[in-house]
Design a protein that fits this description.
The protein has two domains: 2-117, no CATH class; 120-336, no CATH class. It is built from eight helices and 13 strands. The chain has helices spanning 2-20, 27-31, 35-42, 52-61, 70-90, 94-100, 120-131, 158-171; strands spanning 145-155, 177-179, 190-192, 195-204, 207-209, 222-228, 234-252, 255-266, 277-280, 287-293, 305-307, 311-322, 328-336. Strands 1, 4, 5, 6, 7, 8, 9, 10, 11, 12 and 13 form an eleven-stranded antiparallel sheet that branches. The chain has a two-stranded parallel ribbon with strand order 2-3. A hairpin with a 2-residue loop joins β7 (234-252) and β8. The mean pLDDT is 80.
Length: 342
């Protein structure tokens, strides 16, 4: 099918050139000839970010040119901007720096501006925590982003509060945490207050993650996170965020910690890990970055509460049917790359 689409795109370009002339062959018509190659390299088009082409076209189109020798003029402009950026970031002379600020390029806008709020080493440290290979997050660490509206102060239901108590007990081994409803009959223990600040979205870098509580952003509520099994192996699970929240725990009279957490429902794998399905292109031994899971959730338990630092990315959810006579319906998990480059 990809080969057929590639052949038809070539024929389309030829027809446009014959009908309207070579000057009507735009950069987009040229880029569409690389769709087949990109799909074979990276899997389905929905599994990676394609909008960089459009963004680059917008940046190049904003530069002034004579509309005669566009290519060398654009290359010269980019070369000059690179030299100016080098001087702005490396010069020690205050007078030179203040002079070059006059011709400094305009600041980024839109989603690109989100990447200007933090350093790359901060984002790399956040990614390291999400991998949980060397170190794991507590939820109190800084992260390159912010919690976003809709925001409200509310009280956790008893069932979720019990999960939060269990989460804290597994996180801090030197303390014993109890629910505020269990104070009667218990003299020892740090009380966990059910009051939280609930959020519907978060921004990590330039990525916006939604939740079930923010209905307009429910499509971005599907996340991936890593878990360590009892045998030490690490596996990635897909889930759907119910909401994000901040909770403050008072360890003693002089020490309190605020945690940034997410309540997630996790999907069940197909039967077990040994029978999980992977998709392939023809008979190629290299599988695409897409898996098949069930549409069923695990019951709520302690692992349903995670620090937002453990989120490794988003995925697209779609239905996938297998079989001919007896059809089985699965959920296709297609990971999305982060909107970041170093």
């Amino acid at each position: 099918m990809l080969n057929e689409a590639f052949t038809r795109l070539i024929e389309m370009n030829k027809l446009i050139e014959q009908k309207y002339g070579q000057e009507k062959i735009s950069p987009n018509l040229h880029l569409c000839l690389h769709i087949c190659e990109c799909a074979l390299d990276y899997g389905p088009l929905s599994s990676f970010w394609c909008y960089s082409f459009e963004r680059m076209n917008g940046i190049l189109g904003s530069y002034n040119n004579s509309r005669r020798n566009i290519e060398p003029e654009l290359l010269r402009i980019m070369s000059e901007n690179t030299i100016l950026q080098y001087f702005l970031s490396n010069c020690d002379n205050d007078h030179l720096f203040s002079s070059l600020e006059i011709i400094e390029p305009r600041k980024s806008v839109g989603s690109l501006a989100a990447l200007d709020d933090f350093a790359s080493d901060e984002y790399q440290n956040f990614i390291r925590l999400s991998l949980i290979e060397e170190d794991s997050a507590y939820g109190t660490e800084c992260f390159p982003g912010l919690l976003m509206k809709p925001r409200k102060e509310t009280t956790l239901p008893n069932q979720i509060l019990d999960l939060l108590v269990e989460f804290y007990n597994s996180l801090y081994n030197d303390y014993c945490f109890i629910s505020i409803y269990s104070i009667i009959g218990s003299n020892n223990g740090t009380v966990v207050n059910p009051r939280i600040i609930q959020y519907g979205r978060i921004r990590i870098g330039a990525d916006i993650y939604g939740s079930v509580q923010a209905a307009r952003h429910e499509k971005s509520s599907y996340i991936l996170a890593r878990f360590v099994h009892y045998d030490g192996s690490i596996d990635v699970y897909p889930g759907q965020v119910q909401f994000y929240f901040e909770h403050t725990i008072h360890l003693n009279s002089s020490r309190s910690l605020t945690h940034s957490l997410a309540l997630v429902k996790w999907y069940k794998p197909v039967q077990d890990h040994s029978t999980r399905y992977y998709c392939q292109v023809d008979n190629d031994i290299k599988s695409c970055n897409m898996e098949l899971w069930t549409n069923e959730f695990y019951d709520m338990r302690r692992d349903s509460i995670i620090p937002i630092h453990h989120i490794i990315g988003k995925f697209i959810k779609c239905n996938f049917d297998t079989g001919t006579r007896k059809t089985k319906e699965y959920m296709a998990v297609i990971p999305l790359n982060k909107k970041i480059s170093f």
